[in-house]
Specification:
Blueprint: H1 4-19, E1 36-37, E2 43-47, H2 52-57, H3 63-75, E3 84-87, H4 101-118, E4 122-126, H5 128-137, H6 145-148, E5 153-157, E6 160-167, H7 170-175, H8 179-194, H9 205-208, H10 215-219
The chain binds iron/sulfur cluster.
Length: 220
């Protein structure tokens, strides 16, 4: 059970997100989507941005991608309410276009605060935007999810030592069914990591070589 300090910190953060006008997306959103789940979660999942149904409901991963996420989480041995789910952006980009660098810059201080409040042991990034952001926060170079998925990295993010598991965004499997088996494999890996059956690896020189991942580098 999360302590009162943790709950108060998250409530204050959610109130700020609901009132936020830091980037133009506030003008077109129906509802911001701050995130939800167990404040003491061992595992935090980070997606890209709200889509149409998330914008309608004000909750992350509802609709078809959310149903698939629930099934994937079950493969790892979790129910949705046992993890914490957030996005890089808290408001929907119109037409589900990609997040813009200035929006990511404006919004990610909220995600950073969520990570500091939750203090997860494992972070699973869903798709290239959240993977790119977490890699930049870990000082690592990022190019493609396909280069790093299926692996578990021991990294330091925001002063926390975490096991980072990059994978695809679940919505990708709705458009390309062959991605579903990739996601299933990566969520099974998540389950093994949580059970202590897989040791994380230190990022190799191909990721740490330049160690200067920036927002711009992964947004282009
Ligand atoms: Fe604020 Fe983030 Fe929404 Fe932009 S996307 S208005 S920064 S909460």
């Amino acid at each position: 059970m999360a302590g009162p300090d943790k709950r108060a910190a998250m409530e204050a953060l959610v109130a700020e997100i609901r009132a936020c006008t830091r980037c133009p997306l506030h003008a077109t959103r129906k509802n911001p989507v701050p995130g939800e789940g167990d404040l003491d979660a061992q595992v935090m999942l980070i997606g890209e941005a709200p889509g149409r149904w998330e914008d309608e409901k004000g909750r992350p991963f509802v609709g078809a991608a959310g149903k698939l996420l629930d099934k994937l989480l079950a493969l790892a041995g979790f129910r949705r309410e046992e993890v914490y789910i957030a996005n890089v952006l808290k408001c929907r980009p119109p037409g589900n276009r990609d997040p813009r660098p200035e929006e990511v810059r404006a919004c990610t201080p909220f995600l950073d605060r969520q990570i500091r409040i939750i203090r997860p042991e494992v972070i699973m990034t869903l798709g290239r935007h959240s993977t790119g952001y977490l890699f930049s926060r870990a000082g690592l170079e990022f190019r493609r999810v396909s280069d790093v998925r299926g692996r578990v990295y021991e990294v330091e993010v925001l002063g926390l030592r975490v096991k980072l598991i990059p994978t695809l965004h679940p919505a990708s499997a709705l458009y390309n069914p062959s991605y579903r088996s990739v996601l299933e494999s990566d969520f099974e890996l998540l389950g093994r990591v949580v059970r202590g059956a897989v040791e994380p690896e230190r990022p190799g020189p191909e990721l740490a070589g330049r160690r200067r991942g920036t927002l711009e580098e992964f947004m282009v």
